[in-house]
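On clarity, I found the account of how folds are encoded harder to follow than it need be. Since the whole study asks how a given chain folds, the encoding of that fold should be made plain. For illustration, here is how one protein appears when written out as sequence plus structure tokens:
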Amino acid sequence: MRFVLAIVAFVVAAVMIVAGIAQRTIFAPPSQVNASATVPGDARYVVIDSAVLNAHPGQQTLSISGSKNAKTQMVAYGRTADVKSWLDDQKYATISYRPGDSALTVKTVTPKAADSTGSGSASTATPTATPTPAPTGSSTSQTAAPGPNPAGSDLWLEEYDGQDAQVTKMNLPSGVSVIVAGDGTTPAPNKILLTWPVDTSTPWAFPLIIGGLVLLVIGIALYLWGLYTHRKSRGPRRKSGPKMPKLPKAPKYKPTASIEATPRGRRSSRRTRVMVPALLAGVLALTGAGAGAAFADTSTPTPTPTPTSTSAPKGDNNSPAPAVTAPQLERIIKRISVAAANADAKNDADLAKLRFAGPALQLRDANYAIRAKKADQPALPAIPAGPLELSLPQATDSWPRTVTAVVKMPNDSTGKAQAPLALALVQQTPRDNYMVEYAIALEPNVKVPNLAPASIGAAVVPPDSKLLKVQPDQVAAAYGDILLNGDKSKWYSSFDLTDDKLVAQVGASWKQQEQARLAQQFGQTSSLTFSSRLGSGPVISMATNDSGAIVWVNPEEVQLHKVTEAGAQVIAGATTAALSGVAQSNTGIESVYGYQLAFYVPPAGSNEKVRLLGFAQGLVSAREVQ
């Protein structure tokens, strides 16, 4: 019986080992699913929707080719709504997935007449899909004109340019689409290949092979046990009575030389029985060793790039998504830092206009003009590339979009820590980049109010909101009145001025001291007067978690130094003379100082006061007056 069990174990072991190896070789499934398409015509933009990208589970690999200029090709992805808003009135090709035969199909989308007057506005045209592209030679003047270049747009969550765009690996969630393009003038790459991985794991292969090897060992043990028991059961023989008479011997058969004699006796028989199972066991053992080696080779993973998981910016179900994600904002700040460094190094206002607008641009323009004539004039603080200490994007699906960021400043030349830099960024339309409207240094030990997480974003408070202690559009005038009149201002009790460094520098007390100094030095030959007015900068208000708001404003202060006695002259300071081009005047000189201010304004009914969070100020214009 033991011999029968051993043979059964050998057979089952062989079947299990072969089946395990077959799962890893002959019956192994394909490692990936491919779907490709060729975009007909000369489409400048190709859009791949998230539904196509998620047609199969797993990491998506996009391969493109067919570009006329590989250096200008790009692949980017962003929220689907943002991609369509950027395209606006542009014709583009869209890729769809046909699950029946796992193929990609191409349609041309021609937008209807845009409701807006300009390309890239917040009003997005409604596209119309057509199965085939327009025939060659029938393009309209709109399609013949150069299109916008999507490369470098702040709207994209991630972007790949040039050779980096050839093959891109991504894990894009629902609601995110890919745009493939050239530079807006040349056609986009027209060969699209999407690849998804397939689960090639064979969970039963290893147990089958190991189980087969275990059964093989068990079969060998059973066979050896059976052999041992068989030999032991024979024992010594006893003699039993007289021997029987021998039968007559038959004539012996003599085999010829060509016939091999068959071994005789119990030892030969036993040796034969031992060799046959042993030979079978040896063959199966060798087969098992080969199977283990084959499994080890096939199961070794091939090194592949680690995919980067990408999540689209999103809020809760009832609120719009934040304007930017944290990685997206980090990339925007780095681009702003590079542009600011180039402009500052060359004192080039045109370069500054690429990333600065409003009060921030006005102050930089004036600084460049002064430094061109006054070499010892210090430059404005550089915009560091990071790291971000705080980010507060607006939660919105429309434009303009506002983002607030606080960037850590490096130590100065003496190793002393500098106050962080707070930026207010605004993107006017989908095709515009974020521009720095305000760039201020935060006050020392400033207490920042509780803000919404960057993954949720904050709402923009209307400038005329009466839900705050001071309306946002009144904050600039109110603070300007305090700088002029001090504790005599009607707004004085509404502001917390305990640690206000700006009031200490240029407040009512300082103004009175300047007027007294000039009167003592020059008598009544001239007069110095101060007045406040609103600057051209926008009022930006972003809600805090306590129903208050962070309010950015741009008041201006006008200093008029005027001659009051015939024959007297007004002498301009070095900075004013550099900007105005007038060193002295027989009539008077007007100097305008711009302020970039950020306040925390508590909600109406709160016991808290309006608090200055940070500021930047400087001379923005100067001229001679008659």
About this structure: The chain has three domains: 1-28+202-229+274-295, 32-135+142-197, 326-624.
